Automatic annotation (TrEMBL):
It comes from Psilopogon haemacephalus. This is DOCK1 protein. Residues 2-205 form the Dedicator of cytokinesis N-terminal domain. Residues 72-99 form a coiled coil. InterPro entries: DOCK (IPR026791), DOCK_N (IPR032376), DOCK_N_sub1 (IPR042455). Gene3D superfamilies: Dedicator of cytokinesis N-terminal subdomain (1.20.1270.350). GO terms for biological process: cell migration; myoblast fusion; small GTPase-mediated signal transduction. It holds the Pfam family DOCK_N. The gene is Dock1_5. It comes from the Eukaryota. GO terms for molecular function: guanyl-nucleotide exchange factor activity; small GTPase binding. GO terms for cellular component: cytoplasm; plasma membrane. Keywords: Coiled coil.
Amino acid sequence: MFRSVRHMIYDLIEWRSQILSGTLPQDELKELKKKVTAKIDYGNRILDLDLVVRDEDGNILDPEQTSTISLFRAHEIASKQVEERLQEEKSQKQNIDINRQAKFAATPSFALFVNLKNVVCKIGEDAEVLMSLYDPLESKFISENYLVRWSSCGLPKDIDRLHNLRAVFTDLGSKDLKREKISFVCQIVRVGRMELRDNNTRKLTSGLRRPFGVAGNCV
C-alpha cells in the first residue's frame, strides 16, 4: 500500500506542475484535472477515507447548494467509478500473477546447493574430488562435475577457497523431479605415483590419475 500511495503522490506532483505551468490547452487541461480528481478519489478509497462527491468537471459539490437527490446520485456515480477502477487493478494483478506462474512452471527453476566442508580420506597424495548428480536407474550422470583439487596436506590446493567451496547444480526441471531416484555422487581421484610405496627412484612416476574412492547418497 505504501508503494502504491507513493506512486500516486509522484503522479499528482507531476500533474500539478503541468497544471500550474499554464502551457496546456483548455481541452488537455480539462482532461488532466479529471485524471487528478480520479487519482485522488482512488487513493482515498484504498486508504478507507471519505469519498468526495464532485460534479462532471471535478469540482467538489457544495451540499448547501445541491439537493440531496443530486448528492446521492453523484455519490453513486463516483462510487461506481472507483469500484470499476479497483476491479480493473485487481484483474491486472491477477493476470500478472497468472503469467508469472505460467512462466515459473514452463522454465526450470530448481537447484541443489552444495557446500563442501572437508574431505576426510587418508590418501597421502594430491587428489581431485568430483561431485555430480547421477540417475541410478538410467545408469547415467545428469549433471556436470564440480571439481575441487585437494592437496596431500588435507586442504584445498587453492587455499584462498578454504571454507568457500560452494556449488549450485542448476536447471533441474520437472523432468528431473519425476525421476524415481537421484544420487549425489562424490568421486576421488588420486593424482601422483603409480604406487604409493614406490621408493625406487628409477621407477618413480608422478601426475598419474588413478581412481581412489567413490561415495553416494540419495537426494
